[in-house]
Amino acid sequence: MSTALMSAPAGTRTAAKLAGHNRISTQALTSTAQAVAAEYFGVPASAIRVTWSDDEGLLALSLALPVTMPPLDAVVKDPGLVERTGGSVWQRVHAAKPLLLQRITYLTGSILSLVDIRVTGIRVQEGSRVR
User: Fold this and answer.
1) Strands, sheet with 58-69, edge to edge from the N-terminal-most edge strand
2) Does the N terminus or the C terminus of the chain have fewer Cβ atoms within 10 A?
């Protein structure tokens, strides 16, 4: 420790002079990613599998999850329902990637390089809650 830092009164030490680091556990990152994806897709967080990998020093996020869609009989009666509830499965997943990346980065302070999403199933959602 430098003598200038050691001799300075405790209240005058600046954060820039104090070295250290913060770490967010993998479980905290995973829980955050699950919560953000669950909110976006309207599925329980427990239905979302999260894996992390290194992407040249950044975090790459992979999600495996079901998505909600309106019932097929309702879509047959009203073909515009798919667009009003967020679009096709592909459209919704494609649109989610940058939003999830931005939100998880904002909430955790960790910089993500990419978000991969694998759809594992469809959950039929009655009403207007489907995004």
Assistant:
1) 49-55, 58-69, 112-124
2) N
